[in-house]
Amino acid sequence: MSDRQKTRARPNPRRAFAETYGAVLAKGIERRSVLKGLLALTAGAAAMPYLGRTASAAEASTLTFAELTRVRDREDHWPTGYSRQILARWGDGLFADSPAFDPATLDGNAAERQFGYNNDFTFFMPLPLGSASSEHG
């Protein structure tokens, strides 16, 4: 093979028709900018009816209990006139043969027979179901 054949540029179909990375990146930025603008415009239009209602919505709050002061101790604190009842705690046995709870020796077999961890559902559900009772739930 001669030197002329080695140094001659050969056509590469991929290079001839493929866009450069910079061109693709620039198009992506343009699209993102347009999408962000449309999103902001849509959000602004959707929020327009509610912008003047902020003060009146705050006045109509149904929370009537006095705010609790922040206290750092191991006791539970509740507003005056309210109470709570613990239904189940982490590790409470669910069956008569449930093992005693020991967080130092947790295993799957014991966990299947005990109440689970990280149950953060807190909600007042009026009873009977579907009623508007605030006294019984």
Chain-wise SSE layout:
Elements: H1 3-7, H2 13-17, H3 21-47, H4 54-59, H5 108-111
Fold and architecture overview:
The protein is mainly alpha-helical and 137 residues long. The chain is 34% helix and 0% strand. It has five helices and no strands. The N and C termini lie far apart (92 Å). The model has no long low-confidence stretch (mean pLDDT 77).
Please give the number of β-strands: 0
What's the order of the H and E elements? HHHHH
Amino-to-carboxy terminus distance: 92 Å
The computed structural class is mainly alpha
% residues in beta strands: under 5%
**Helicity level, as a percent range?**
25-40%
Question: How many helices does DSSP assign?
Answer: 5
Mean pLDDT: 77
> What sort of overall outline do the alpha carbons produce when their principal axes are compared?
flat
Largest sheet: number of strands, sense, barrel closure: none
Using the CA coordinates, give the radius of gyration: 33 Å
Low-confidence parts lasting 5 or more residues at pLDDT below 50?
Answer: none
Looking at this protein, list some descriptive labels:
mainly alpha; 0% strand; 5 helices
Compact description:
With 137 residues, this protein is mostly helical. 34% of the residues lie in helices and 0% in strands. It is flat and about 85 Å long.
